[in-house]
Amino acid sequence: MRTEIAMITEIHEINRKIAELKLAFEAYIKNQDYPLDERWSAFCQANDALKNHFSSYHDFMCMDNGAIKYDGWLLHVERNETVHTEFIVELAESYNEERYDPDMRVVDVDALKEEILSLNLGSYEYDW
After folding, report:
1. How far is 114 from 62, CA to CA, in rounded Å?
2. What's the confidence (pLDDT) of residue 95?
3. 75 exposed, middle or buried (CB, 10 Å; 0-12, 13-18, 19+)?
4. Would you state the pLDDT for residue 128?
5. Which H, E and C letters describe the chain, residue by residue?
6. pLDDT per residue of the chain (128 residues) written in tens, 0 to 9
7. Which domain holds residue 69?
8. CA torsion through residues 7, 12, 13, 14, sign
9. pTM of the model
10. CB-based contacts of 61: which residues, under 8 Å, 6+ apart?
11. What pLDDT sits at residue 58?
12. 116: buried, middle or exposed (CB in 10 Å: 19+, 13-18, 0-12)?
C-alpha cells in the first residue's frame, strides 16, 4: 500500500510527464509538414489532459458566427454547455455529406481541423 507521500510524489511525476508530453504533442499537431489526417487522428486519440479547454466561447474563423450558438445552423448549444471540438468536426462532415441544396453553406472541414489543431482545442464552454 502506498503512503500519502509516495502517492503525492507519483502524482507530481505524472503531472511533469504530462506537461512534457503536451509540449511535444502540441508541436506535432501544429506542424503542417505532417499530413492533416495523421495529426487529426493523433488529436482524437489523445487524452484530454494533453488538450486545451477554454472556459469561454470560441468563435471559429473558418465558419460564420451563426454556426454554433443557441440557434445555430450547425449546432444548437445551451448556455454554459461544454462543446467538444471533435463533435463539431463530426457534425460538419455529416452536414456537408447531407446537403441537399448546392446553395447551402459548406463547412471547410480541413480548415476547421487546422484551426482546432493550431489551438490544441479539445473543448470550450459556451458562455454567451
Report:
1. 10
2. 87
3. middle
4. 66
5. CCCHHHHHHHHHHHHHHHHHHHHHHHHHHHCCCCCHHHHHHHHHHCCHHHCEEECCCCCCCCCCCCCEECCCCCEECCCCEEEEHHHHHHHHHHHHHHCCCCCCCCCCHHHHHHHHHHHCEEEEEECC
6. 779 999 999 999 999 999 999 999 999 999 999 999 999 999 999 999 999 999 887 888 888 777 887 778 788 888 888 999 999 999 999 988 887 677 777 889 999 999 999 999 999 998 86
7. 4-126
8. positive
9. 0.87
10. 115
11. 81
12. buried
> Phi/psi of residue 94, each to 5°?
-65, -45
Nearest 5°: phi and psi at 125?
A: -100, 130
List the end-to-end C-alpha distance of the chain, in Å, as a whole number.
47
Bridge partners, 96 (sequence order):
none
Q: Length of the chain in residues, anyone?
A: 128
Strand bridging mode 121-126 / 81-84: antiparallel
Give the separation between CA 26 and CA 36, rounded to whole angstroms: 14
Q: Which of 105, 125, 123 is nearest to 62 (CA)?
A: 105
What's the total number of domains in the chain?
Answer: 1
